[in-house]
């Protein structure tokens, strides 16, 4: 972090008095260390992620390891017109329906023609939604009438579109359930593995990796349902030859902490021989996965969140994304990605539209929310990790993999999200995501079963989400049972996301950091305070946040001459500052009082 004053001096925005004439709005700031040369793209999707199994569940029993009959399960039909109305009012543009595709489960649907699964290779009573059992079908748990499960999902897609919202769903390319067998595949489709040469550990056109002469061994000590007995649980599972496990374990006996319930798909990479790639001719798995994506695109899905995208070869994405966009040019692909060194490559060569910003911004904000980090982590993100492609980074504070903000394992106090979520939503013009329950401070208390008590809402167990259920209010979706504090928090999220989705400066504007301009201020503790501008020729915004959980600061915010020039403002005029995040009176100065865990977004206008 640069500690010197800028050459142009530091000025309070209360009254500009530069001797130089106003600088044209179009000036670029390529050489200014407080900004980047990136021309922002308007990619401000506002995504609401919901676990379909959990969202509409009204049952509040929450018995550990409970069955679907005991603990209940949300359905496609529970996501009603009213629910979608209320989601839309939050400023949301896209809904990510998580856990839709049929996956392995301990719930028996054999009577409905779906083979039962063996508890020895299922995680949790409900099962992991990332252990896919049939890529061409949806989970029977989510249907009111099991035989109508696909029409019920199609009706949800239409209902979502009718409310002006778009639909995202999961694509899980790296692995499938050990029990994978499609009984819903379209006529003429050859199932994964059906034509594999199982005598070979690797063959370019095999769909799986094999361990010839060896049989799969259930991990020692695996106890699927704790004190209870799971269906067909006997510590055995017949799989000969054994297949490689989903997290790249090439052993017939994976560890209990491995993704042992899944098998790794073969994209033409010989992992056991220096990872040599066999990509020409196009491997069979590539074609099969292309056809699966085209199938769902045909259901009018608007985009895919691609699970563990870095675990399949980049060359596959470069092939398949353009193939699917031939069917729907507007369909979007979001990569769950964790290697900042590969971000640019996945965007440019892999053809992804958006990437997770977990390792950079999420991790940095998590530390700040826990009072462990510094705002320099944010600077590193825009200056280094996502410099040049910030408009393509999907930002969030919660998702199904991460701990709940209000949990004791993360931040405990949900108000700690106020400064962090403000940065998440406004730092750049890329997508922002909210996870269902985050907006009402769901703390993920209790041990659901397989998940244990880990600060996360289980994706493996049947469960009701208590604070979310208060907002849902038995399907009324009116928030009547929320506390005053929860209503205030939800109001904050709604104001922020609506502002992010409508503001010209946030959707399209350039970025200018003001840490260097303020770090010598007596009341400006740059470890806790973070300040920046977002601006276009139509709108100029100043964002100020305080991450401290207990300190109030009273700085006078300064904007340097370079930033004034970058915004194209007339330095001879006086300006007013209106907080558009927390509506209040119009200010004539930026002598601020920043309460603990506060956030402000001031619109700058001539007096």
TrEMBL record:
Indicate yes or no for the key word Iron. Answer: no
In its UniProt entry, the species of origin is given as Hymenobacter sedentarius
* Signal peptide residues on this chain, from the entry's feature table: 1-17
The Glycosyl hydrolase family 13 catalytic domain sits at 49-500
Keyword field: Signal
| CDD domains in the record | AmyAc_3 (cd11349)
| UniProt cross-references to Pfam families, sorted A to Z | Alpha-amylase
Among InterPro entries, the record links this protein to:
GH (IPR017853), GH13_cat_dom (IPR006047), Glyco_hydro_b (IPR013780)
The identity of this protein, by name, is Alpha-amylase
Question: Recorded GO terms, molecular function?
Answer: alpha-amylase activity
Q: Which GO terms describe its biological process?
A: oligosaccharide catabolic process
């Amino acid at each position: 972090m640069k500690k010197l004053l800028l050459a142009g001096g530091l000025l309070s925005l209360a009254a500009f008095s530069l001797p130089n004439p106003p600088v044209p709005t179009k000036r670029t700031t390529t050489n200014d260390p407080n900004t980047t040369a990136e021309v922002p793209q308007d990619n401000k999707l506002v995504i609401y992620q919901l676990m379909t199994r959990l969202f509409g569940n009204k049952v509040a029993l929450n018995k550990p390891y409970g069955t679907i009959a005991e603990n209940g399960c949300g359905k496609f039909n529970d996501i009603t017109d009213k629910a979608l109305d209320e989601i839309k009012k939050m400023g949301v543009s896209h809904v990510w329906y998580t856990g839709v595709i049929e996956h392995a489960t301990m719930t028996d649907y054999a009577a409905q023609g779906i083979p039962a699964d063996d508890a020895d290779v299922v995680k949790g009573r409900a099962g992991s939604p990332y252990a896919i059992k049939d890529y061409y079908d949806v989970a029977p748990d989510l249907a009111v009438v099991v035989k109508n499960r696909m029409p019920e999902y199609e009706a949800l897609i239409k209902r979502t579109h009718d409310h002006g919202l778009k639909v995202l769903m999961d694509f899980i390319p790296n692995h499938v359930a050990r029990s994978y067998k499609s009984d819903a595949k379209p006529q003429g489709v050859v199932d994964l593995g059906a034509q594999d040469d199982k005598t070979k550990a690797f063959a370019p056109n095999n769909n799986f990796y094999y361990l010839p002469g060896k049989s799969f061994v259930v991990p020692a000590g695996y106890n699927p349902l704790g004190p209870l007995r799971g269906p067909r649980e006997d510590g055995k599972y017949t799989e000969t030859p054994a297949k490689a496990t989903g997290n790249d374990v090439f052993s017939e006996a994976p560890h209990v902490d491995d993704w042992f319930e899944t098998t790794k798909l073969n994209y033409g990479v010989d992992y056991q021989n220096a990872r040599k790639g066999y990509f020409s001719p196009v491997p069979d798995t590539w074609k099969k996965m292309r056809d699966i994506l085209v199938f769902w695109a045909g259901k009018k899905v608007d985009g895919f969140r691609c699970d563990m995208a870095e675990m399949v070869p980049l060359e596959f994405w470069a092939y398949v994304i353009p193939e699917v966009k031939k069917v729907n040019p507007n369909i979007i692909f979001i990569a769950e990605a964790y290697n900042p060194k590969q971000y640019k490559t996945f965007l440019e060569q892999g053809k992804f539209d958006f990437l997770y910003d977990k390792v950079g911004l999420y991790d940095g904000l998590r530390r700040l929310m826990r009072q462990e980090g510094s705002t320099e982590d944010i600077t590193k993100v825009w200056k280094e990790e996502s410099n040049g492609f910030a408009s393509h980074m999907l930002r969030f504070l919660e998702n199904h993999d991460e701990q709940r903000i209000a949990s004791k394992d993360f931040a405990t106090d949900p108000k700690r999200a106020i400064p962090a979520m403000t940065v998440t939503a406004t730092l750049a013009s890329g997508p922002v995501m909210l996870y269902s329950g985050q907006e009402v401070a769901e703390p993920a208390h209790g041990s659901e079963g397989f998940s244990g008590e880990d600060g996360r809402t289980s994706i493996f167990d049947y469960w009701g989400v208590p604070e979310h259920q208060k907002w849902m209010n038995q399907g009324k979706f009116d928030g009547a049972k929320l506390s005053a504090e929860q209503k205030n928090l939800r109001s904050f999220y709604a104001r922020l996301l609506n502002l992010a989705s409508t503001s010209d400066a946030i959707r399209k504007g350039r970025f200018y950091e003001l840490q260097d301009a303020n770090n010598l201020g007596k009341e400006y503790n740059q470890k806790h305070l973070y300040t920046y501008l977002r601006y276009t020729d139509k709108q100029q915004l100043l964002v100020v946040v305080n991450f401290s959980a207990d300190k109030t600061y009273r700085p006078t915010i300064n904007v340097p001459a370079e930033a004034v020039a970058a915004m194209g403002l007339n330095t001879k005029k006086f300006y007013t500052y209106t907080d558009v995040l927390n509506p209040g009176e119009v200010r004539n100065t930026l002598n601020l009082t920043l309460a603990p865990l506060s956030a402000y977004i001031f619109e700058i206008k001539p007096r």
